[in-house]
Amino acid sequence: MRKIKSLILAVVVFGLTAPVFTACSSDDDKKTEIIENIISEFSVNDEMVAAQKAKSKKNTAVLLVAFGSTWNNAFLAFDKTKAAYESAFPEADVYISFSSDICINRASIGENVDDNGNIVKRDYYEPRYLLHAIGAAKYSKIYVQSLQVIPGEEFAAVVASVKKFMNNGYIGNAHLDDEYLEKLALDEGIFLGMPLLSDPEVDVPAVAAELNKLYASEAAQGVVAFMGHGNPDSYDTFKANIRYTQLEQDLQKFSPNYFVGTVDMPDNYKQDVMSRMQAKGIKSGKISLHALMSIAGDHAHNDMAGEGEDYWDDEDPESEENSWYEFFNHKGYTANVPLAGKHPQGLLELPGVLQVWINHTKNAEFLEDAYHSMYPEE
Fold first, then answer.
1. Alpha-carbon distances of 147 from 7, 93, 373, rounded to whole Å
2. Which of 166, 208, 224, 227 lies in disulfide reach of 370, CB 3.0 to 4.6 Å?
3. Tens digits of per-residue pLDDT, 292-333?
């Protein structure tokens, strides 16, 4: 089996700076060891996937694609998501990938600790490399499921990965069997599952209903504000930012105390959320903060729940660096962040919301036009 390059450029750069070599090694020795380490890493995905397929004897693969995280509570959420998919798709082998190079690298070296203070290291891979490995193992049916919340910039990257896979664009000279890829396209073998809030007429009201089931009691006592990510205008692929506005509108059909803001969508920052609250006459009182992201990672822990002087600048109350928790507390509200154990929760940890993603996989679109031969007719 051909080996695939599962190590991204940033990992190579890390390898150049990491304390792997002794000070007495020559430059040539260092280069040789770097190359050997990289070649070893290149083989990981092919071998891992081939071993899983041989063990399970299954011919269907589900690849879950998340942006990623470096937090242990997020790793555990991904583990539970994978387990839920294995239960929902007993005929399939389930794999999970990260699209963020930074998250992949930092997770592999252990950027954060678990609740007992132990450094946690996890190995994740980009979707393109796992897709190549899945193809090399020749699964006859492949589902690629986006774990993004909106069909924005990150979802566009998922689509690009699938297209490149089906066009045999990987990896260097390690091409897949072109006849196999053509068969996937002709025999309904490659499917794409949409992000959580893909359909404004179906998904948005369904997620609003699930969130209201969980947080209606909080909304009866004060404001419930959800913090999503969002895209800057220049990255608002598919004009997907509107899903946050639509979700707020559907949530407010249950209670006027629901609001949805973001960290990156123009005109929908925490200041804009407060302006909408005050326009409804809500100028004080309790506000519960929840992450509208697949997992509770850096944004949830820092941008939303960050507490203390590191998360508030008296000289610049409107600063993006100020957390939602500190911002609302300094603006006359009583903010709190409900925790599960020691952490906020992400959407993947809410079974009713996770089921919406699972339903998207079950109803995934067959990509009949995805394949184009790498050997065009002359």
1. 22, 17, 29
2. 166
3. 999 999 999 999 999 999 999 999 999 999 999 999 999 999
Tell me what pLDDT residue 168 has: 85
Q: How far apart are CA 183 and CA 373, in angstroms?
A: 11
Query: Which conformational region is residue 168 in: left (phi greater than 0), alpha (psi within -120 to 50 degrees), or beta?
Result: left
Enter the tokens of residue 335: 């903010």
- The neighbour count for residue 305, using CB atoms within 10 Å, is 25
pTM: 0.88
Mean pLDDT of 212-235: 96
CA distance 315 to 28: 53
Provide the residue count of the chain: 378
- Answer whether residue 10 shows pLDDT above 80: no
Nearest to 191 by CA among 88, 87, 63: 63
Residue 43, CA distances (Å) to 131, 136, 177 in order: 14, 12, 18
Residue 179's contacts (CB-CB under 8 Å, 6 or more residues apart) are none
